[in-house]
Amino acid sequence: MPIDPSEALVVGVDYGTLSGRAVVVRVADGAELGSAVFEYPHAVLTDTLPVGDVRLGPDWALQVPQDYVDVLRYAVPAALADAGADPAAVIGIGTDFTACTMVPTLADGTPLNELPAFADRPHAYVKLWRHHAAQPQADRINELAAARGESWLPRYGGLISSEWEFAKALQLLEEDPEVYSTMERWVEAADWIVWQLTGSYVRNACSAGYKGILQDGRYPDQEFLAALNPGFADFVTAKLDQPIGALGAAAGTLSVEAAAWTGLPVGIPVAVGNVDAHVTAAAGNAVEPGQMVAIMGTSTCHVMNGAELREVPGMCGVVDGGIVAGSWGYEAGQSGVGDIFAHFVETQVPASYSEAAAADGVTVHEYLTRLAATQRVGQHGLVALDWHSGNRSVLVDHELSGLLLGETLATRPEDIYRALLEATAFGTRTIIETFAGAGVPVSELFVVGGLTKNKLLMQIYSDVTRLPLSLITSAQGPALGSAIHAAVAAGAYPDVRAAAARMGRVERAVYTPDEAAAARYDQLYDEYRQLHDHFGRGGNRVMRRLRAIRREAMAEATTAGTDAEALTGAASNGAADGAPQTPAVAR
Fold first, then answer.
1. Which of 171, 206, 277, 500 could form a disulfide with 282 if both were Cys (CB 3.0 to 4.6 A apart)?
2. Distance of CA 117 to CAs 34, 178, 366, Å?
3. In DSSP terms, which residues pair with 45 in a beta bridge?
């Protein structure tokens, strides 16, 4: 029976850092009828692998690709059930992914970690976007590209990130040549999951352009790659290159196997893969020049369209049609935002605060926010740098680290918490000003993600940036964006702009700048920028030196054991022998 167009549905699936989210959306108006979340059982591997006793080094972040397939098997059917939807009404499915998240595979798409011989080899696993251990390789790529005057380098703000495809692949080659030799495809996870859905491998234009250094139809040439490492010369032709699919097009149709996983009809169109940030612009109908979208979660990605090509220092790339056809899509970002707040709450808040929050029936985040909201701007006397996960834009340096200045014996946890909120807003303002200085002005900030629930944070962002903040009201913005692309792939709309105009969901100017607060933030921002440039632009390279010392110490600890372990062992042996124990000393 033909589907009534007014009742046609699409499914969007958003793959985040810790979970995958599926949403069922009505094609006619973008109404979200049902959703479900599947938490990755293996989460993020930062210390050890799931098998064996192999320990990971500093700045590693891996994942298990089976977790991604399980999102299709569990979240999609659960979302359909939540919506009370007839699967036969679904006319298409779209997906998006964190980027740059890379899967090393055989020619048929089998991930290398699923081969018994490589189950205990770290380089056989997925390298998550926040895997920053390839910074030395990124440094060499940047130095060589600058020395050779490579024409593609300015389109990435003059710096290639350690998070991206080439740096991570070069690290794999140099640290585990056997795994690299066995690898036949180096696949963005955004494309790998579409491969699993359709049985065909199509590379999406977004990931290829922003993360794969594909500009004007060409990757870095063989001569450049050979100069990095002779074994890397054929990387593009042998392991990376693949047909490119346009955003909003169909990559193929749902296979019999994937239909069984998801409960969806066999043969429905599957949209070309996409990146979580870029797909979200459609969810808020924020696709015109000057409309910057900030997707705020563990990290923040900033995307916007421009009418003209400009070279913006320190951005993550500019790609023709990288967000929607007919515009230049720009990307920037911050490597740590929600992660920074979570780290502070999990490791540096005293038990008395947790107890007080529990007594009030709120989370520690909510309790700290409530206390911080009572302060006047600048009352805490602090300024922080938001580099706990390095700096993605505009410095593109993941050897940088966090900093807090102004702490005294009177400083309270809520003071530091507010300073960290402000630091991330200062980081966004740095990005906005850099774009404006390069001739790509930002007139409005659209925000989406779980952090939009924090009203204090949103007002701080508006005050710091001096911009109105519009909220993309979908609880699952990227998933809605993927659903919009699925509707286009299914032929329900002629293009993404038309679909976004009908299906996007946004509340305009929910937050506007307070002039008195903005003026005081201008003062604090001046201090932030001085610290930003001093520690980030070569005035003092202490953060990099500390990272190097840490790596050396951790390597020694891994191979020889730490003094602390030796002392603990000695103390334990003494206690077992009945030796007297020294009482603890309060410090």
1. 500
2. 41, 11, 47
3. 62
